[in-house]
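Why should sequence recovery work at all? Because a backbone constrains its sequence more than one might expect. Tight turns favour small or flexible residues, buried strands favour hydrophobic ones, and helices have their own preferences. The token representation captures these environments compactly. In the example below, the structure is given first.
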């Protein structure tokens, strides 16, 4: 299954255009940290949205917004003017979510807004939060999970004794072998 989840910042304003059969297509460029080293330049990726999602992206998301993107990653081959072919990665977005301006892309430190969006809906302003400095100190706002009650008892039996197998029981997947009779043509070669 090809599925990619990416936290990134939009660096080009989303551009909306339409196909010949009036299907909306939005293209934008995003950037994200390329490695664990802060001195390395960020990586960029072309993101494409289709249909109603394309319209929503163009209306609600803009350059500088930090987003979580869920979609399919693909590689496209492009013929360059210099005479060689270049491979470029492209993300076809299926869901998009804003994470607000307090999000730090070099370490996961802010809580994203709670719902993914697939259809057109007005974007709400994210709550203002101070970024946390350590991912391990992140505390979820969800309640702690509790086990579901079960009408079936799970107590193990206290007087378990293995059932003895019958004496003639043979553990095999092969048919029982009959004792061999001597071969009447017992001629050695």
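From this structural description, the recovered sequence reads:
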């Amino acid at each position: 299954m090809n599925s990619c989840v990416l936290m990134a910042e939009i660096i080009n304003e989303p551009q909306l255009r339409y196909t010949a059969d009036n299907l909306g297509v939005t293209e934008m460029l995003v950037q994200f940290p390329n490695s664990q080293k802060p001195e390395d330049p960020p990586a960029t990726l072309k993101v494409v949205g289709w249909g109603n999602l394309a319209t929503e992206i163009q209306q609600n998301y803009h350059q500088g917004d930090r987003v979580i993107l869920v979609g399919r990653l693909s590689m496209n081959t492009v013929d360059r003017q210099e005479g060689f072919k270049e491979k470029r990665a492209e993300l076809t977005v299926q869901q998009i979510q804003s994470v607000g301006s307090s999000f730090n892309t070099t370490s996961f430190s802010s809580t994203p807004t709670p719902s993914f969006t697939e259809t057109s809906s007005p974007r709400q302003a994210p709550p203002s939060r101070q970024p946390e400095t350590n991912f391990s100190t992140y505390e979820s706002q969800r309640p702690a999970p509790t086990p579901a009650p079960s009408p079936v008892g799970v107590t193990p039996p206290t007087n378990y004794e293995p059932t003895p197998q019958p004496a003639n029981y043979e553990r095999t997947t092969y048919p029982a072998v009959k004792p061999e009779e001597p071969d009447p043509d017992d001629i050695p070669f």
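A few observations help interpret the result. Confidence is low (pLDDT under 50) at residues 102-140.
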